[in-house]
Amino acid sequence: MHPYAALAKSAIEEYVKNKKVLGAGAEIPEDMKRRAGVFVCLKVRGNLRGCIGTFHPCCKNIHDEIVRNAISASTEDPRFSMVRPDELEDIDYSVDVLSEPEKSNVSELDPKKYGVIVVKGGRRGLLLPDLNGVNTVEEQLRITKMKAGIIPDDEDVEIYRFTVDRYS
Protein backbone atom coordinates (compact mmCIF):
# COMPACT_ATOMS: atom_id res chain seq x y z
CA MET A 1 0.00 0.00 0.00
CA HIS A 2 1.35 3.43 -0.94
CA PRO A 3 2.21 5.64 2.09
CA TYR A 4 -0.52 8.17 1.15
CA ALA A 5 -3.19 5.43 1.14
CA ALA A 6 -1.72 3.95 4.32
CA LEU A 7 -2.01 7.36 6.01
CA ALA A 8 -5.67 7.63 4.94
CA LYS A 9 -6.33 4.13 6.32
CA SER A 10 -4.61 4.90 9.65
CA ALA A 11 -6.45 8.23 9.99
CA ILE A 12 -9.83 6.58 9.41
CA GLU A 13 -9.14 3.67 11.73
CA GLU A 14 -8.00 5.98 14.54
CA TYR A 15 -11.05 8.19 14.13
CA VAL A 16 -13.66 5.45 13.70
CA LYS A 17 -12.32 3.34 16.57
CA ASN A 18 -11.19 6.04 19.03
CA LYS A 19 -12.72 9.35 17.82
CA LYS A 20 -9.20 10.82 17.70
CA VAL A 21 -7.52 12.74 14.90
CA LEU A 22 -4.31 11.03 13.89
CA GLY A 23 -1.02 12.34 15.23
CA ALA A 24 -0.82 16.11 15.20
CA GLY A 25 2.83 17.01 15.62
CA ALA A 26 4.12 13.73 14.16
CA GLU A 27 7.21 13.72 11.95
CA ILE A 28 6.02 14.37 8.38
CA PRO A 29 7.85 12.74 5.45
CA GLU A 30 9.43 15.22 3.04
CA ASP A 31 7.10 14.30 0.14
CA MET A 32 4.06 15.18 2.28
CA LYS A 33 5.22 18.69 3.22
CA ARG A 34 4.06 20.45 0.05
CA ARG A 35 0.52 21.79 -0.38
CA ALA A 36 -2.05 20.42 -2.85
CA GLY A 37 -5.71 19.57 -3.17
CA VAL A 38 -6.42 15.97 -2.17
CA PHE A 39 -9.33 13.57 -2.57
CA VAL A 40 -9.69 10.43 -0.47
CA CYS A 41 -12.00 7.74 -1.83
CA LEU A 42 -13.16 4.61 -0.06
CA LYS A 43 -14.50 1.52 -1.82
CA VAL A 44 -15.91 -1.76 -0.57
CA ARG A 45 -15.82 -4.63 -3.09
CA GLY A 46 -15.43 -2.11 -5.90
CA ASN A 47 -18.39 0.04 -4.81
CA LEU A 48 -17.94 3.62 -3.66
CA ARG A 49 -18.27 3.97 0.14
CA GLY A 50 -17.18 7.58 0.52
CA CYS A 51 -15.19 10.25 -1.29
CA ILE A 52 -14.36 13.74 -0.05
CA GLY A 53 -11.69 16.16 -1.09
CA THR A 54 -10.44 19.63 -1.80
CA PHE A 55 -9.37 21.00 -5.17
CA HIS A 56 -7.40 23.80 -3.50
CA PRO A 57 -5.42 22.98 -0.36
CA CYS A 58 -7.03 23.87 2.95
CA CYS A 59 -4.28 22.56 5.22
CA LYS A 60 -0.62 23.43 5.64
CA ASN A 61 0.59 20.24 3.88
CA ILE A 62 -0.49 17.09 2.03
CA HIS A 63 -0.18 15.02 5.21
CA ASP A 64 -2.80 17.08 7.05
CA GLU A 65 -4.95 17.33 3.90
CA ILE A 66 -5.04 13.51 3.64
CA VAL A 67 -5.92 13.09 7.34
CA ARG A 68 -8.68 15.73 7.16
CA ASN A 69 -10.24 14.40 3.96
CA ALA A 70 -9.92 10.75 4.99
CA ILE A 71 -11.91 11.41 8.17
CA SER A 72 -14.46 13.42 6.19
CA ALA A 73 -14.80 10.67 3.56
CA SER A 74 -15.58 8.16 6.32
CA THR A 75 -17.94 10.35 8.34
CA GLU A 76 -19.35 13.26 6.30
CA ASP A 77 -20.05 12.09 2.73
CA PRO A 78 -23.79 12.87 2.50
CA ARG A 79 -24.37 9.91 0.18
CA PHE A 80 -23.40 7.37 2.85
CA SER A 81 -23.73 6.63 6.55
CA MET A 82 -20.64 6.92 8.73
CA VAL A 83 -18.14 4.07 8.40
CA ARG A 84 -18.57 1.55 11.21
CA PRO A 85 -15.67 -0.28 12.92
CA ASP A 86 -16.87 -3.62 11.51
CA GLU A 87 -16.45 -2.27 7.94
CA LEU A 88 -12.81 -1.22 8.25
CA GLU A 89 -11.25 -4.49 7.09
CA ASP A 90 -13.24 -4.41 3.82
CA ILE A 91 -12.29 -0.88 2.70
CA ASP A 92 -9.93 -0.14 -0.17
CA TYR A 93 -8.35 3.32 -0.03
CA SER A 94 -7.22 5.67 -2.77
CA VAL A 95 -5.73 9.13 -2.51
CA ASP A 96 -5.68 11.54 -5.45
CA VAL A 97 -3.28 14.48 -5.27
CA LEU A 98 -4.51 17.18 -7.65
CA SER A 99 -2.55 19.50 -9.87
CA GLU A 100 -3.46 23.19 -9.81
CA PRO A 101 -6.70 23.59 -11.84
CA GLU A 102 -6.27 25.47 -15.13
CA LYS A 103 -8.94 27.27 -17.13
CA SER A 104 -9.92 25.16 -20.10
CA ASN A 105 -12.53 24.55 -22.77
CA VAL A 106 -14.43 21.51 -23.99
CA SER A 107 -11.98 20.71 -26.80
CA GLU A 108 -9.10 20.42 -24.28
CA LEU A 109 -10.79 17.84 -22.04
CA ASP A 110 -10.20 14.08 -21.87
CA PRO A 111 -12.12 12.21 -19.12
CA LYS A 112 -9.41 9.55 -18.82
CA LYS A 113 -6.60 12.09 -18.34
CA TYR A 114 -8.22 15.20 -16.79
CA GLY A 115 -10.62 15.83 -13.98
CA VAL A 116 -13.00 18.71 -14.51
CA ILE A 117 -14.45 21.56 -12.46
CA VAL A 118 -17.44 23.56 -13.69
CA VAL A 119 -18.38 26.93 -12.21
CA LYS A 120 -21.42 29.13 -12.67
CA GLY A 121 -21.93 31.93 -10.18
CA GLY A 122 -21.59 30.42 -6.72
CA ARG A 123 -22.15 26.87 -7.96
CA ARG A 124 -19.27 24.53 -8.62
CA GLY A 125 -18.91 20.84 -9.23
CA LEU A 126 -15.90 18.56 -9.59
CA LEU A 127 -15.40 15.14 -11.12
CA LEU A 128 -12.16 13.19 -10.83
CA PRO A 129 -10.58 11.72 -13.98
CA ASP A 130 -10.54 8.11 -15.13
CA LEU A 131 -13.76 6.97 -13.47
CA ASN A 132 -15.53 3.77 -14.50
CA GLY A 133 -18.46 4.51 -16.79
CA VAL A 134 -17.34 8.04 -17.66
CA ASN A 135 -15.96 7.66 -21.17
CA THR A 136 -16.85 10.88 -22.98
CA VAL A 137 -16.33 14.58 -22.36
CA GLU A 138 -20.09 15.10 -22.69
CA GLU A 139 -20.82 12.55 -19.95
CA GLN A 140 -18.11 14.03 -17.72
CA LEU A 141 -19.55 17.55 -18.08
CA ARG A 142 -23.15 16.37 -17.62
CA ILE A 143 -22.31 14.62 -14.34
CA THR A 144 -20.20 17.52 -13.09
CA LYS A 145 -22.93 20.08 -13.85
CA MET A 146 -25.52 17.91 -12.06
CA LYS A 147 -23.23 17.70 -9.01
CA ALA A 148 -23.05 21.51 -9.04
CA GLY A 149 -26.81 21.94 -9.43
CA ILE A 150 -26.35 23.39 -12.92
CA ILE A 151 -28.72 22.43 -15.74
CA PRO A 152 -26.83 19.84 -17.86
CA ASP A 153 -27.62 21.68 -21.13
CA ASP A 154 -26.24 25.00 -19.82
CA GLU A 155 -23.14 25.86 -21.83
CA ASP A 156 -22.52 29.18 -20.05
CA VAL A 157 -20.11 27.76 -17.46
CA GLU A 158 -16.45 28.20 -16.66
CA ILE A 159 -14.48 24.99 -17.14
CA TYR A 160 -11.24 24.06 -15.39
CA ARG A 161 -9.22 20.89 -15.82
CA PHE A 162 -6.66 19.19 -13.60
CA THR A 163 -4.64 16.00 -13.42
CA VAL A 164 -4.21 13.68 -10.47
CA ASP A 165 -1.55 11.40 -9.12
CA ARG A 166 -3.56 8.43 -7.77
CA TYR A 167 -2.22 6.30 -4.94
CA SER A 168 -3.84 3.15 -3.55
What would your notes on this structure say?
The protein has 168 residues and is of the alpha+beta class. The protein has helices at residues 3-18, 62-75, 137-148; strands at 38-44, 47-53, 91-98, 102-104, 115-120, 123-127, 158-162, 164-167. The chain starts with a helix and ends with a strand. The model has no long low-confidence stretch (mean pLDDT 95).
Low-confidence stretches: none
Strand order of the largest sheet: 2-1-3-8
Percent in helix = 25-40%
- Measured between the Cα atoms of the first and last residue, the distance is 6 Å
The CATH homologous superfamily of the largest domain: Hypothetical protein ph0010, domain 1
Radius of gyration: 16 Å
Roughly what fraction of the amino acids lie in strands?
25-35%
CATH topology of the largest domain: Glycoprotein, Type 4 Pilin
Number of domains: 2
CATH class of the largest domain: Alpha Beta
Strand count, sense and closure of the main sheet?
Answer: 4 strands, antiparallel
Question: In a few lines, what is going on in this structure?
Answer:
The chain is an alpha+beta fold.
Features:
168 residues; Dna Ligase, domain 1; 2 domains; four-stranded antiparallel β-sheet; 8 strands
List the helices and strands and how they pair.
Elements: H1 3-18, E1 38-44, E2 47-53, H2 62-75, E3 91-98, E4 102-104, E5 115-120, E6 123-127, H3 137-148, E7 158-162, E8 164-167
Antiparallel strand pairs: 1-2, 1-3, 3-8, 4-7, 5-6, 5-7
Helix pairs in contact: 1-2
